[in-house]
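Q: Predict the bound structure with zinc ion.
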Amino acid sequence: MGKHQSNVPIKTSLQFTSNSSHNSFLTYHITGTLLSMFRNLKVEILIVAILIFSYLLISCSSTKRFTSDEDVTGKEVYKEEIKLNASAVRVLLDEKPEALYITIQSKVYLYSGESKIAEVNEGNVLECFNKSGKVSLNINRKNFTASYFLLQPATGNTIKYNGKIYRGRLQIIVEGNTVELINFVELENYLRGVIAKEMPLGNGNENYEALKAMAVCARTYTLMKMNKGNIFYDIYSDTRDQVYGGYTAEETISNKAVLETKGLILKYDDKPARIYYHSTCGGVSENAGNVFPQQNHPYLTSVEDGSEPYCRISSRYEWTETYSESQFIDKLYNSGVISSINYEVDDIYVSSRFESGRVNELEIILKGNAGRKEIILYGNEIRSRIRTAKKNRLLWSTLFEVKRSGYDIIISGKGFGHGVGLCQWGAIGQSREGRIYKQILAHYFPGTESGRLYD
Ligand SMILES: [Zn+2]
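A: Predicted complex:
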């Protein structure tokens, strides 16, 4: 999701399954079978058998964490990876066509598949290439080729590379012709690197309840992505999903917000809710179905952001964009609405609005050498068709009025983002007025409640 906004529709419902519950069922089943076998044996034999069985159980269950002191065998790494797959988020950190260069800045262990092949000291560069769909890795004039490589911290819990620090471990793979770097990181640790990037932290505790609300939203969204079953990674680390800055981005207050909401997601009708959020609603949020077709949910409905809008503290609560006529024509041309710039704007007006007041249909009448041309732009697409005058960003919102002033076209509006779901600046406004995160979430997602994933 963007810095304070999102255009990402959520498509699937969450059906999160746990591998660990599967394992405990298996253990119970084996124990029950063995006990029934022993029932008719003498007590002494039974005791000895139970002791042996207990010993076997303890020695088989590898609960010890992999530490830098251990000489880790490939088998242990493999187990660790399975464990991570069950509870870790796989975040795409970087992708480059054909080659990726990783400057190591903290000592790491390098694994090829299941085997530890090198200790890499800081200052070394890993040159990773696509070699017919496998990773070809050069380090210190040595070359290794494998379907994937793993980097594990040699000391502590973090890896520093290319000036950034991440928790968990890193995987290098090739997908198509692209070399990809993926961070395997435990869910709650991942969220720590997200919240500080996605929400303004404020002074002291003023934004704290909003940060907690955001942590619940981000956790719900992430679990939905993890449940999609993608092959290589679950989630992007940029505006395509949620901006993630890893350990480098973490701040005390946002970490605390993640910790205090640990394991909480947003639910409707006892099922995980679909999460949308945006920077600033401008006074009223939008029905999801008006922005994302087929996403009409009772809790994703248009709500007023207070009688005095909570988000009026946002710098994008009100805005004005002024275009010269030729600049406006350029915007339409650059976004593919028209195929020539030889037009003048004859008229422009809003022909219909949604109940919230956001523009549904914007009509633009152009005249040129080839005659008159009528264009209708619809809803949220207007934002990418008529981008901002100076920086060419998506138009702030569709909650606007449009008028002519001489040759200029002036669009003045309220809010920033698509308007669906949680209004981030409204959440901050509520936090500053003393409302708690559950009230904030219930306000923007009416009828939902926060609950544990496994409730
Ligand atoms: Zn708002």
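A: The pocket of zinc ion is lined by residues 280-281, 305, 309-311, 423, 426 (CB under 6 Å).
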